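so my prof wants the structure for this chain in the tokens format not the other one, which i didnt know existed until like an hour ago. anyway here's the sequence
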Amino acid sequence: KIENNIKNGSPTILNTNDINDLFDEIYKKINLKKIFSYIYFLQPISEQSFVLNKIFSGFGRMYSKFPDVGFISGLHKKSLELVEEDIAYVDLYGFYGYNANAHPFFTKHVIDLENIWGGDNLTDLVINVDYEKKDVDFYLRGEKIQLISMNVISSRNRPVIHRFLCDINQIDAADLDLTKKIIFDNWKSFKNNKVTFIPEVKMAEIILSRNKWLLNISLYKKENNEVELFSELIRDAESGLIPFQFYVRPLKVKYLKNIDQMNDIYKPQYINLKNVTSYKLLFRIIKKSKILLLEQNTPNSSDKERYPGDFRNNTIEIGVENYFIPMENN
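here's what i got, hopefully its the right format
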């Protein structure tokens, strides 16, 4: 469906059957014997329409910094009381220099990955692997547990062992980029285009994937000349081939000197081609990149001017937390 719409440049509209088919695909890859909690971040475009920004693990993770604010004070413990009685939830605890990770203990036990907060050590964790059932269980002091992460910062910025435990327990951000697989599946044909337009994916009034543009920098005539490349990009923007304002990140880079550069260069950066300083940032990214992915800047400043009352001109994000509980009939 998406591939066909890329060819004709029209948005993809998903219906309930499409979403159910997508869920069935995810269901095969996720261990739904456990309870899962996710928080969906939606950004309003208008009173009735929204954009899906990101999906993070839930269990109150994004509220963990506000334990004393009204109803939130008991939210985490009440949430965890809803889960299976024979499994205790254990928080992977560690600041790693990020104050945003600071939060009180919400679980009876925590794995203290820095060995300074008074929790259980990583060496106390026992992993049981059932190769026949292809299942992994975790135990602490002889008790079956399920690991969760209440840290706000993504596990990608944590030590390798922390990332591994988040990944194997499926407790980190979920990537629902419905166009990424399409890009790599069609790479041979896309890489021959200077610009490939990938239209948005919607269901009802929610944009699940924004408009994107794939740029093959090597097909620009003056890719190494800052001024002349700027002229090429402006011509493309004026002709409607690419937007003037967008978020950019590289899909393929030429070289990186160290791990810090890798963490930095793959972060989406806001670019306005009408701003010289902003373009200089883009050119710095281009010098290290072969393929760029541009993503639509929506909601934009015009959308925010229409927000009601005190929300006007502000950036708003709404978090919706869900719990998925396995039933006997799946």
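also thought this was worth mentioning. The chain has a mean pLDDT of 79.
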